[in-house]
Amino acid sequence: MDSHHPESDTTTGQKPSEECAVVGYYGNNAFINILFGLKALQHRGQESSGMATYDGSIHINKGMGLVSEVFKSSSLPGNIGIGHNRYSTSGSKGIENAGPFVISSSLGYIGISHNGEITNAHDLREELKKNGYIFTSSSDTEVMLILMASEINKYGIYDGIKKAMFKLKGSYAAAILINNTLYALRDPRGYRPLVIGKNSDGIMIASESAAIDTVSGELIRDVKPGELVEINNGVIKSIFTIEWQHSHCMFEYVYFARPDSIIDGREVFNVRYNLGKILAIEEPAVADVVIPVPDSGRSQALGYAVQLGIPYSEGLIKNRYSDRTFIMPDQQSRYNAIKLKLNPIKSEISGKDIVLIDDSIVRGNTMKFIISLLKKDGAGKIHVRIGSPPIIAPCYFGVDMKTKDEFIANEKTVENIKNEIGADSLGYLSINGLKKAIGISNLCTGCLTGRYPEEIPPFAKPNYT
């Protein structure tokens, strides 16, 4: 994945963006199965899409845009392949950074699709350059691939990958193709999800189980944190597992993953529903109706409404086909951009006190304008409730949140934030409530506390000089 400064889009810039989606497949109709898997995981990356398959030779197609735009008519042969949807979190945008990355080595072809962020990529790149390796992109995925190829050349596949894992820092969930064998690899802390499933054609690995559902498959299990899994001739074999303390990303459950996915044994919808119920216990409000910010607040809003016995309503309708807006020069233009993206159902808004639920507030711009939109259409009191704790610190493990300045909660009280967004009241879920709803105590909460599971190398931080 690759890092750039976040875009300041009024209507979409509030949310942190995910890093990437990976898919791998071994079996019949590999191209079609990977294609459907990538389409199911389009939400994890819309910048570029790509695929590499193998049938004795390597075949690659990748380009900028959505899966449907890149693979309009092309097909790739072979019964094994890997696919990638990208959103850059480290390096620049551009076709040179689109995945998958493939190289030809003395062993044959090695390809990788990677979801996450290698925090020490700069240092590793410089070290590899000194040893004569040449890079064609600014992507940390290419660093990971060349490091692995170097170690594999010296120690063989299993030991080489293990040696590389001990040198890599940060997060990675990867689908790896080495000639006619497929591998699944997850970092020892398990920051990013990776699952294994099967259908009538063969075996799939993917960032989320929803991809497996899309090809009429069944989920077999998660790839364990620190595990290398080999898939060949229909056989799934666990090669090794490096045991470290786990630090699953809480944002996968709060926002990134599809609600119909199952991650580390937990259905995402059920987790979000419980987030809403616990939020209602911790931060109750008296109101006529509970309304979610679509689409991200729906599951939490339903849990909140059920817990307090307040009617739930879809009071905001999202225009799924509105164009992405640019940076607007004045308040009226920004208001019009929100109106294009979201429109209230007036009968559900006018004259009613509302609990407005969203999964998170990052910059606060969108929430501020939604509140002004609702009040302009006759809403009474608006009680904002957020299904996660305040975000106060950057993420260095694959989420596009890199500078403290962009966080509305940075060095502000809840009362300050309430006044800034124009709400009548504001309540956040607690960190303990978050852990209880997810059912995992070993979470990465660095963006909530500023304390990270591992040391962050200086070059991983923005504005490093």
Could you tell me the radius of gyration in angstroms? 22 Å
CATH-defined fold name of the largest domain: Glutamine Phosphoribosylpyrophosphate, subunit 1, domain 1
Number of helices: 15
Task: State the CATH class of the largest domain.
Answer: Alpha Beta
Distance between the termini: 22 Å
Profile the largest sheet: 7 strands, antiparallel
Strand order of the largest sheet: 3-2-4-1-10-9-11
Structural class of the helices, strands and pairings? alpha+beta
For this structure, the quaternary state is single chain
In the CATH classification, which architecture of the largest domain applies? 4-Layer Sandwich
Number of domains in the coordinates? 2
- Quote the beta fraction: 25-35%
- The best one-word shape is globular
Number of strands: 23
In round numbers, the mean pLDDT is 90
Low-confidence stretches: 1-13, 323-329
CATH superfamily of the largest domain: Aminohydrolase, N-terminal nucleophile (Ntn) domain
The helical percent reads: 25-40%
What this model shows, in words?
The chain has about 475 residues and is an alpha+beta fold. It has 2 domains: about 20-245, Glutamine Phosphoribosylpyrophosphate, subunit 1, domain 1 (4-Layer Sandwich); about 270-440, Rossmann fold (3-Layer(aba) Sandwich), CATH 3.40.50.2020. Helix content is about 30%, strand content about 25%. The protein is built from 15 helices and 23 strands. It has a 7-stranded antiparallel β-sheet with strand order 3-2-4-1-10-9-11. A 6-stranded antiparallel β-sheet has the order 5-6-7-8-12-13, with helices on one face. A 4-stranded parallel β-sheet has the order 17-20-21-22, sandwiched between helices. A hairpin with a 3-residue loop joins strand 2 (about 50-55) and strand 3 (about 60-65). The two termini are about 20 Å apart. Residues about 1-15 and about 325-330 have low confidence and may be disordered. In the C-terminal section; belongs to the purine/pyrimidine phosphoribosyltransferase family. It catalyses: 5-phospho-beta-D-ribosylamine + L-glutamate + diphosphate = 5-phospho-alpha-D-ribose 1-diphosphate + L-glutamine + H2O. Its EC number is 2.4.2.14. Catalyzes the formation of phosphoribosylamine from phosphoribosylpyrophosphate (PRPP) and glutamine.
